[in-house]
Amino acid sequence: MGLFILRRLGVMLLTALCLTFIVFFLTNLYPNLEKLAKTQGNFRMTDEAVASWLDDRGYIDNTFVKYGRWLGVVPGWVTEKDDGIVTGQCFAENAPVEERATFCGVLQGDWGFSLVFKDEVSNIVATRLAATGKLMGFVLLVMVPMSLIVGVLAGMREGSGLDRSLSTFSIATTATPEYVSGVIFIAIFASSAFGLKWFKGSATQAIENATFENFTLPVLTIALYGMGYIARMTRASMTEVMTAQYIRTARLKGVSFGNIVLKHALRNALIAPFTVIMLQIPWLLNGVVIVETLFNYKGFGWLLVQAAGNNDIELLLAVSVVSVVVVLITQLISDIGYVFLNPRIRIS
Fold it and tell me: Are 283 and 167 in contact (CB under 8 A)?
């Protein structure tokens, strides 16, 4: 198991480097850099002025060199102007020589400065990630138990009326996009159109103080969309297990149906859904963009939209790195959990 984990960690590190380099390359294409220069300087800047602005800040250098600076394994850029003013990536303007750091990248904990939010990127990402983490936690608490219950009940008696009803419900929830169900929920439960107005709070307030009124609709919108997929996978796995030979043997021995389901079928049936549930976490992290925008919940997905829309390169890179890391970690946990749940893989 230890060797398996070490191999997986090595693959994760290589994958993270490759993916972050691709994102870094795409975000540092010249049109993006030109837009950045004009945004921070003047939209009427000439091409020569744009090139000078970018050259002074190291944006014109080789992509691999810039990527190394961003990681913190290559010394940061230093520019000395004709008037004697010295600026650098890792120190303030005209800072004393003894206070000038050489390396300042991700490995040193320096994620850069957001030119849009005027704050350290690490502070912004941590705040928005915590907000989305809270939303994800409540979604998982609702989505996972309900989807497992629906899937198990449907798979216990394949072809029955209960199975057809629950399967239809699962397909309907998965086929309905969040922006459709979200708008329907708002129109029915949060507006005066139908006279209900059960949920009067704003999801923006839920960032600081989550209540039943301001947090139910966004949680329910995301949970319903993801619940159908997990329920369908659980139903398919449960159906396969219930037709296995050892289940038939248990029935012939007179074991009650409840004991067959709980003691024999359920654990084996949850192996495949476990992997699916773990893969829902990266989807929740980045797939909540629509819901967070719809309900004005300023979390990680909302931050991704702002960073991309405003060409905030440093912030966009940080958001991308966090997304890559979350995906890789959840896949590692999924692989390890699958090994523990499936004895056949563990023995092999």
Answer: no
DSSP string of 316-328?
HHHHHHHHHHHHH
Angle between helical axes of 313-341 and 300-309 (0-180°, round to 10): 140
Whether 77 and 128 map to the same domain: the answer is no
Residue type, 159: G
181-217 pLDDT, tens digit each: 888 888 887 766 666 677 776 777 777 777 777 888 8
DSSP 3-state percent helix, strand, coil across the chain (nearest 5):
70, 5, 25
User: What is the largest distance, in Å, between two alpha-carbon atoms of the chain?
Assistant: 93
- What's the rounded mean pLDDT across residues 25-49? 84
Tokens standing for residue 267: 């654990």
Q: Is 254 left (phi over 0), alpha (psi -120 to 50) or beta?
A: left
- Are 26 and 129 contained in the same domain? no
CA distance 294 to 306: 14
End of a domain among 110, 130, 157? Answer: 110
Residues 6+ apart with CB under 8 A from 203: 214, 215, 217, 218, 295, 296, 297
- 202: alpha, beta or left? (left if phi > 0; alpha if psi -120 to 50): beta
In a domain, 91, yes or no: yes
In angstroms and rounded to an integer, the radius of gyration of the C-alpha atoms of the chain is 26
18 C-beta neighbours (distance < 10 Å), count: 11
List, in sequence order, every residue forming a beta bridge with 86; answer none if it has no partner: 80
7 burial class (0-12, 13-18, 19+ CB within 10 angstroms)?
exposed
- CA–CA gap between residue 58 and residue 24 (Å, rounded): 14
Tokens of 65: 């060199």
The pTM score is: 0.79
**Domain carrying residue 245:** 122-347
Contact 133, 210 (CB under 8 A): no
Q: How far is CA 100 from the centre of its chain?
A: 36
